[in-house]
Amino acid sequence: MTALSASSPPAAQPAPTLRERLRRLRRSYLFKVVIQGVITILAVMTLTFFMIRQMPGNPFQVRIDDLMTRQAMTYEDAYRAAASIFNFDPDRPVILQFSDYIGDLLQGDLGMSITKTGTPVAELILRYLPWTLFSIGLSVLISFTLGTTLGLAIGYWRGSWLDNVVTTLASVISGIPDYIIALLIILIFGVQLEWFKIGQVRGGVDPTITPALSLEYIGSILQYAFMPMLIYTLSSIGAWILAMKSSTISTLGEDYITVAQARGLPQRRILSAYVGRNAMLPLITRLAISIGFIMGGSVIIEEMFQYPGLGRNLYLAITGRDYTVMQGIFLVITVAVVASNILADVAIAWLDPRVRLDKGGEA
Amino acid sequence: MKRLLVLLLIVILALGVTALPLAAQDAPQGTWLGTWPYAAPGTHNLSSFASGGLDTNLGTVYRPIVELTPAYYLWASNEYVSMLASSWGFVDDNAAYEYTIQEGALWSDGAPITSKDVVDTFAIGRILGWTIWNSLEGVEAVDEMTTRFIFKEGVASLSAERLILKQSVSASANYGDLAAQAAELAAAGKTKDDAEWQALSTAIGEYHPETLIASGPYTYTLDDVGEAFMTLHWQPNSLYSGSVRFGDLKLWSGETEVTTPLVLSGELAHSTNVYPPATIEAFAAEGIRLVTTPRGYGPAVLFNYQVEAFNDVNLRKAMAHAINRDQSALLTNGLGAMGTVYFSGILDSLTPQLLSEEAIAGLDRYEYDLAKAEEYMAAAGYTRNADGKWADAEGNLLSFEYTFPADFADFSAMARDATAQLNDFGFDITERALPWQEAAQAIREGNYELSVWSWGAGAPFAFNSMNSPIRRWNNPVLPAEQPGMSLPLQFEWNGQQIDLNDLILNVSAGLDPAELTAKADFVAEIINDTLFFIPLNEMLSVEPVNEQSIGGAPADGDPIYANPSSDHFIIYLILNGTLFPAGS
Fold this sequence. Notes:
Chain A is mainly α. In chain A, 72% of the residues lie in helices and 0% in strands. Chain B is built from 20 helices and 24 strands.
């Protein structure tokens, strides 16, 4: 059954049986992408679990090395001291560790941090996720909106001075790593020109302000998020501009654009309803992936500004080899990327029925 | 009535006059702007014993300012000065050690600090496997203020004294219950292998007190911990509340790359981070004062003795003579490193204190001398081939791989320079950069040919310096399945059978200064002659002290700057009020 046949008058059809409904569900496009997503999550989760344990130096060994170097302990003494500190048994077979992990996960338990004893991983993620969602999420939306708008404009008016200026700027800025942009802004505008106090753009909010739904508190959140957001936007907007320009130029060559122009439609209408909408299609998957990766935060920027996001915590967990925290954050990122890809698939199928028909499924 | 009014007025005036100085002693003004890589909110806890607690959050530099240690060690004069204790020393013919807490010492909650707090602290430390318990039989209260540490037979040592006097004391009000359980287990004859012992150890690790009870003049709560900085606030009850001159200690979070802009902008006045030479130059260009202190360690060339060639001492000596250590130091960390002088196995700053003049005079200093290096190469049986490379009798080049931790800028710079200098001399060495955890693992597993790791330690005893890397990276300190350097520690030397493991282990045992010097002399001579590793340089800590923010820092060359990071100078200078907010 196809999407086209689904539009037949329902009154003419007998009520579908349960078996029929299951068969339809199995064949539906959404069902397929969801199942693929679940399999992907399970595969990534398993791979992640084993791969992070292949990294040299487990948290236990890092602590042992530290104790042996700083306190001249023997391996046995350092081992005993480390064992007393961490909730982690390095001698437990990895496969049993995995079964523990899966067992806990099925009960919604992400476990406890290994290096910060007594700290549940879920609590840690819930504490930091909103900051990342807010700052990076908003930055993605801003850079996507601005980038695609500018890309559309310079694609449509290609060869103009605007095109030359914006394309050059976008090419340059998309080639500079985000941490270099951050350093340049800090050193030029913070240290040299003293436009802002460097300490006042570090952290998530002014710790002297009591958390409340007040203008002061919200203002402080926005003030502290400004710099990470600015840098993330600057570092990602170039790619959106260039991609949208390329897609726009490609769309402009389509027959329906020529027809629209021949019909004498207003330029604004051609730009928005004909060019923009169609040029946007290839960028949706890319946007979905970007949205998925929002969850992981921006590791270096968050570390540089001590912004309380998941990215900074991931960085700390990796350097400290905190397996359980790494697993938890990677799981969140995986689920987010897979979910946003499913949404992108569904959105594209909705925007372009050929996708559904090509796969022989139903939306 | 009039008299009564006059009397009342006099009383009020008198009270006012006496209250004025008291008010002046309240909460000193000004903020110390420092840095420490503390655990972020959510993972931060206030435990004196748990991971993510005070040890992480305040470290060796700031913890003694919050939880006082009994005494503080001055490296230049080899003496302890009082912090929490009024007196200390060996007793009972060195069978035990005692210290007495100063009269009037109070916790921040107003309760007196007593010997019970000390006994409880060490009871918990026993469960956690503290090193000092290798030397102790027990810890007991002699009276309200005095604690006795009873040694196992014949193990009294200056190292043990240091472990006792450097241990911060924690409040029984927070840890008394856990300490009582620990004492019960010890009294019942339980050991670390018993399940109850391990369960208590886990419970200690998971216990996070809600408040920090401080003995020092500063304390904080979890509300004072932000993402970017945490603030320690002055509290009135400490022995040092009247002498310190900062109202708050603001500690920025983050490591070198994060704190650099803050130092440059003047928002961070003192930092213990290791800054690269270019950054140090930028600080100097901004007019920021730089204070240099020892770090207590340095990078060394480590050999893997499973590689046959390295078993020839002539080859090792040739390598030592072929490396220009001044250049190595400069490239390792600019002003923050010094080429090693004595090759005694003991840090250069300690060698004159711990060795006799005769022994020092007898040490080979392995000066940079390519001609001498050539002689040793010839003695080892190597000749130069047509390309000028050293080759053995079969024509095999001296081809090795040099692994180093890529993320330690100083160690990797040292390794790369050593590689370049040795290759210029005729070796065929290839660099291999690894993440530091992998580099450490490679040494542990003996999976390397040449590597770099630290030598020396931040403790004023021969044992600590000599321990690393000779014992640190070898059996029996490493378990049997980890060969490490594969260096045989029992060997014949100058006609004597030597057990280097045993000699180093006991080099600082005992209390007789003449005996200690003689033992150190002997081991230093062996280490110097056998050259089991090449200590290329000794690291220095070049610390910015911004005098726009901090006043009172002693002039360069002051003896306090002989203290390494493990007994950091700011502990002493903040507590005794030498440092103060600039302009106050």
